[in-house]
Predict the structure.
Amino acid sequence: MGGITRTRGGAYTPRMLELTRAVRFCLNGDGAEADTPRDNTFSAWPAMRGLGRYYELHVTCRGEADPATGYFINIKQIDTAVRDHALPILRRAIADDQHTADTPMGALLRALLASVQPPLGGTVCALALVLTPTLRYDIEHDTMAHITLRQQYEFSAAHRLHVPALSDADNRATFGKCNNPAGHGHNYRVQVAARCAIADDGTTLDPADLDAAVNTHIIEALDHKHLNHDVPAFKDRNPSVEHIAQTVWELLADHLPTGSTLDEVTVWETEKTACTYRGD
């Protein structure tokens, strides 16, 4: 985020910043949900009715803040742009329940970004469609030939933080309980971000294909293993969360489906501790 900076003479000079607004909504495809009251837009509007579909659109706009108000765009403008222009596109996309699995997601992301660009004065630099708590698609205005697919996974593993070159006392001082000779375990959460080309027909990487690659090269390699003893990559590498993120990248980078490349890997050791690795 940017902001406003004071010059030596006391005047304020605007700086470029990015503002992201998450718009939550529920759709059934028939448009009837548009008549529901707007009593809880924090949760979602349109609101959930029966077995509807829940989505989020995260719209990122780039611009300069007004020196007086501190605004460069009113968030209500973003809400209105999404509800008036993006939601109709999504309603049409889900109108035919039999074919939603074949929706060309690359073309859809392009259409969604393009739909909110004019009402927001051409300031939209990125947009994300969040389909589940773990799965999202991102597209950037400057790179409309690609999307970024982000999906999360989990594996359970044991490890011991220990450096043979250090004394036992130094290892205990450095790693504390994590140096326990018997090791200890974590439920690791992994987010894989794959940069995917959009084909001529608007399709892009199928999440199921990414799931298959991650399952083969990451989950099967690390799940329910003692990292120090069972995983060759950690023979001479202390299995810290930093090294685990790097190892996940190395195990996966050359095995993504055709048309996609690895953009970044994030590994959560706990809910409070995560490491992101983006290669060299």
Remarks:
- Residues 145-280 form a domain with the Tetrahydropterin Synthase; Chain A fold (CATH 3.30.479.10).
